[in-house]
Amino acid sequence: MHALLISGSPRAGSGTSALAALVGDALLARGATVTLLELAEPSAPRLRDTRRSHDAVVLASPVHHASYSGLLKLALDEVPGDWLADTAVGLLAHGSGPRTGNVVCEHLRTVAGALGGWVAPTRIAACPADFAPGPHGAPGPHAALLRRCDALAAELHRCATMLRTPVPAPVRVPASAPGIA
What Pfam families does UniProt report for this protein, alphabetically (predicted)? Predict the structure, then answer.
């Protein structure tokens, strides 16, 4: 499975990107290949120019005025309407407080569905409190956040596998078969 993680933060190396990287690590642990695309980087390719070789896409955004970032909005506005067709989609939001990201995930769920994506049930809305100071002063994720990232990775893997499985041809039942009116 190949996963494309998209960080819609206008700051490279942001909390949003750190959150996306945690999900990426959980996907790597499941054998996936992962590409992290930070839209803030000047050399970042446009989404419409990326190859559609991914089985899963993770959309990550900071909370900007109770919605997702304009940078991510601009990138998603440029892709074709079927860009996420038959693709497993994970949603992440990083905000200032424990409940600020829920509405962002809901907005992104609508957009992902409009682009044909299959959104995983687990959505992650995190904040700085989900990270604790590590042994060298750098913040590290709390165990609860790691469990949520692992749950999302499991759902994305399962959904991507399901979407790659061919659908069998319908069984044709003759009209004269017993029990059919």
Answer: FMN_red
178 pLDDT higher than 80: no
- Strand ranges inside the chain, DSSP E: 2-7, 33-38, 56-62, 88-94, 118-126, 131-133, 139-141
The pTM of the whole model exceeds 0.85: yes
d(CA 57, CA 117): 9
- In the chain, what are the domain boundaries? 2-164
CA–CA gap between residue 26 and residue 34 (Å, rounded): 10
- Dig out the tokens for 64 from the structure: 């900007």
Q: Do the Cβ atoms of 86 and 122 come closer than 8 Å?
A: no
- DSSP string covering 93-122, please? EE-SSTTTTHHHHHHHHHHHHHTT-EEEEE
